[in-house]
Specification:
The complex is a heterodimer of chains A (277) and B (64). Chain A contains eleven helices and two strands, in the order ααααααααβαααβ. With 277 residues, chain A is mainly α. The longest helix of chain A is centred in the middle third of the chain and has 52 residues. Chain B has 64 residues and is mainly α. Chain B is built from four helices and no strands. In chain B, helix 2 packs antiparallel against helix 4. The chains are: A mainly alpha (277), B mainly alpha (64). At the A-B interface, helix 8 of A face helix 2 of B.
């Protein structure tokens, strides 16, 4: 009965075209692109461009995350191209290759908190500083991060996905190098490199570590948590309601709080991890 | 092919040091008047610095 009840509630939040995530995904990328000429022509100061770019890049993973779950357009539907476009472009500034990352992310959903099979387990840490250190370490030369050995062993398209990821990310690196040697080095530093360093810590800490901490338990009702973030819903990227996302990944991010409030009595009954939320 | 790719990718840190870090640091130095004060082109300083940093990162597997 509980599953039927959960599904009935969840379906109220699934299916509408997610305008909010579409505008966020495309608008964020367009804003980031616009910062380059605006800063270069000194229409806005470089420090302001850096702050805006940091905000855009810290949040650019989220629309792509909805695309990874086909929320903007399921396969073989008219909006699938938009789903894939947003999936690719919104994460491009932080150099996360969309299709490879989607394959890895779905492994996380299937094996959340499993010490052997969850690709995000590398983020496990006792506290937020340990998590930030893990995120930093995963970006060191030669580190695989979520693409640990064996994560995609059963995926027949693994090689194709890795090759595509290498091409996409290296093209961006080369494009940035060309810009840097063409008189835009300060823009590369302030609008891309510094914001990307911050986002590459913020994103895994907020999205991988916080909602699954302490990453000890597995199972539908125990592998993630609902918790009251000390920095609020926006600064925690909506991850207080990540519990809803793992139960029903087809609910758009901006609708998870409302879905959570409606689902909460059932979740309490199912002994889900709900901490002060 | 895989071995060649792996070899090429292992030079990523040096690519970063020379192609990105060096011009970015030079731009910062220029912003603060380094070139004017010392009469040395900023890239003369930042290019070897970027190359060495990238090489060290490649050998040790860490940036810091």
């Amino acid at each position: 009965m509980s599953m039927q009840e959960q599904r009935a509630i969840a379906h109220k939040y699934i299916g509408d075209f997610p305008w909010f995530m579409v505008i966020w995904g495309l608008g964020g990328f367009a804003l980031w692109i616009a910062l380059w000429p605006l800063a270069h022509m000194q229409i806005i100061p470089m420090w302001l461009a850096c702050i805006v770019a940091t905000i855009v890049l810290c949040y650019c993973y989220l629309p792509s995350h909805d695309a990874q779950h086909g929320i903007i357009g399921r396969p073989n539907t008219p909006t699938r191209w938009l789903n894939e476009l947003i999936g690719h472009v919104s994460m491009l500034p932080i150099l996360v290759p969309y299709r490879l990352h989607r394959a890895i992310h779905l492994k996380h959903h299937a094996n959340a908190n499993d010490p052997e099979r969850d690709p995000d387990i590398y983020m496990k840490a006792d506290n937020i500083w340990g998590a930030a250190l893990n995120a930093f370490k995963s970006k060191q030369p030669g580190q695989a991060g979520a693409l640990a050995d064996g994560v995609l062993e059963d995926n027949p398209r693994k090689q194709e996905l890795i090759l595509e990821a290498l091409i996409v990310t290296r093209l961006v690196w080369v494009a940035m190098a060309i810009l840097a040697w063409s008189g835009f080095a300060l823009e590369v530093l302030m609008i891309w490199w510094i914001p990307r360093q911050i986002a590459s810590i913020y994103t895994p800490v907020t999205l991988s570590w916080a909602p699954h901490h302490p990453m000890e338990e597995t199972g539908r009702y125990r592998d993630t948590r609902g918790w009251k973030s000390p920095v609020g819903t926006i600064l925690s990227a909506g991850m207080e309601y990540h519990i809803v996302h793992h139960l029903f990944p087809s609910i758009p991010l901006n609708k998870t709080p409302a879905a959570y409030r409606e689902l909460r009595p059932i979740l309490v009954r199912e002994n889900m991890r709900i901490e002060d939320l | 092919m895989d071995a060649l790719l792996e070899k090429l990718l292992s030079w990523g840190p040096v690519f970063f040091g020379v192609c990105l870090f060096a011009p970015m640091l030079a731009a910062v130095l220029n912003t603060y008047g380094f070139e004017a004060a010392f009469g040395v082109p900023s890239l003369t300083v930042t290019l070897p610095l970027g190359f060495v940093w990238g090489l060290v990162a490649r050998m040790t597997g860490r940036w810091l």
